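Lecture notes, part 5. Sequence design as translation. It can be helpful to think of inverse folding as translation between two languages: the language of shapes and the language of residues. The source text, in structure tokens, appears below.
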């Protein structure tokens, strides 16, 4: 753990971790907060699901656009406009009693969601040396996953308490605090977008981006299936409460997996680490289809989460190595536009398959989707060869200088 102690001793690391954390928790709360609000107002689970779907799909569909705005204008004013607007919309939804208004506002919230996670990631290059980036990405990934575990727990606890109307208010406060702190923090406020190389090809012509979008399509679809298959299986078996066991096991193990990845030597290239971990991810996904909602599924889910948490770290490194200059935020944003949109499709298909065939078949398709993603990376590895090398100390130093606020 010495490496993590060294990382947190660096200036601005604690600032970046703590500033955005409340906003990340707010994002973990939004889905269930909208669900409970809609269900309480209308009594319709189907409509509550539609509201969540509309919010999620709108958010992923416009991620690329919002990321491109950050890459063009910086983080200062986009965050200062989007954060208070988003928090205000949650409050408006909370005081509304109209199902139509809730659905419309949930969609608008998705369209204008502040790109908190997308904004944090490129800031690491400005505050840590190049040989600490893997460790920094591991911390950021684990912080995201921690917020993802806490958010749903807080939202559910509040919705089922005597203050059932408070989840959206709480999420709005968290967003205002975290998003506001990030927007005002000097490390974000002073960040300057990279200058695009004159005559460079457009982002959509980038071969690596197209390859990663194809890989992301398989993963998005598979994870959409998974998110529906687990609660569907538990509900069919009349053990719906065990759904929380499985997702908690996945969430906690993904935090551990991300931190473990941060300790792997930089002598291992990003692409090599990604492909090896990806294969493990595929292998541990296979047993999920043969588990039962309970300890066996929780154990298999923990293995799945551990590998997935590690993959996220290496994935960011590969993306950073292959992306064109000037796309620090938009590259990841466009990848999420594809993956998140297909994930919504996977969730819709997963509901149909779970009911018409079986949830186990859905889980088997999740493993198949991960296998297809692994195959895509294997076939197209030449497009990612920029990530299959280990930067020299001089290159790491130059990268830091190129991305420091004083020189960009």
């Amino acid at each position: 753990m010495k490496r993590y102690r060294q990382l947190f001793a660096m200036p601005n690391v604690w600032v970046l971790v703590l500033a955005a954390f409340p906003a990340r928790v707010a994002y973990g709360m939004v889905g269930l907060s909208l669900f409970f609000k809609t269900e309480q107002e209308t009594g319709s689970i189907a409509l509550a699901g539609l509201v969540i779907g509309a919010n999620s799909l709108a958010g992923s569909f416009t991620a690329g656009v919002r990321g491109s705005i950050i890459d063009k204008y910086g983080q200062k004013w986009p965050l200062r406009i989007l954060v208070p607007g988003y928090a205000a919309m949650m409050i408006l939804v909370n005081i509304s009693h109209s199902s139509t208004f809730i659905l419309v506002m949930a969609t608008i919230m998705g369209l204008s969601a502040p790109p908190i996670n997308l904004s944090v990631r490129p800031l690491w290059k400005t505050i840590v040396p190049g040989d600490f980036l893997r460790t920094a990405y591991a911390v950021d990934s684990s912080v995201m996953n921690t917020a993802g575990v806490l958010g749903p727990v807080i939202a559910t606890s509040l919705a089922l308490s005597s203050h059932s109307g408070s989840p959206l208010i709480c999420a709005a406060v968290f967003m205002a605090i975290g998003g506001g702190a990030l927007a005002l923090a000097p490390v974000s406020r002073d960040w300057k977008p990279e200058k695009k190389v004159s005559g460079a090809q457009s982002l959509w012509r980038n071969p690596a981006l197209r390859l990663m979008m194809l890989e992301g399509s398989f993963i998005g679809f598979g994870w959409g299936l998974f998110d529906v298959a687990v609660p569907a299986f538990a509900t069919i078996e009349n053990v719906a409460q065990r759904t929380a066991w499985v997702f908690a096991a996945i969430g906690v193990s993904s935090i551990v997996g991300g931190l473990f990845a941060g300790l792997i030597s930089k002598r291992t290239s990003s692409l090599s680490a990604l492909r090896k971990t990806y294969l493990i991810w595929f292998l541990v996904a296979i047993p999920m289809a043969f588990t039962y909602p309970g300890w066996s599924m929780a154990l298999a889910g923990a293995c799945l989460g551990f590998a997935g948490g590690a993959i996220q770290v290496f994935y960011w490194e590969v993306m950073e190595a292959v992306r064109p200059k000037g796309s620090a935020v938009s590259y990841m944003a466009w990848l999420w536009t594809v993956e998140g949109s297909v994930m919504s499709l996977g969730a819709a298909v997963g509901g149909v398959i779970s009911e018409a065939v079986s949830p186990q078949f859905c889980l088997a398709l999740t493993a198949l989707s991960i296998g297809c993603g692994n195959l895509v990376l294997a076939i197209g590895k030449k497009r990612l060869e920029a990530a299959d090398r280990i930067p020299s100390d001089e290159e790491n130093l130059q990268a830091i200088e190129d991305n420091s606020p004083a020189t960009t």
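The translated text above is only one of many valid answers, since several sequences can fold into similar shapes. Residues 159 and 222 are 29 Å apart (CA to CA).
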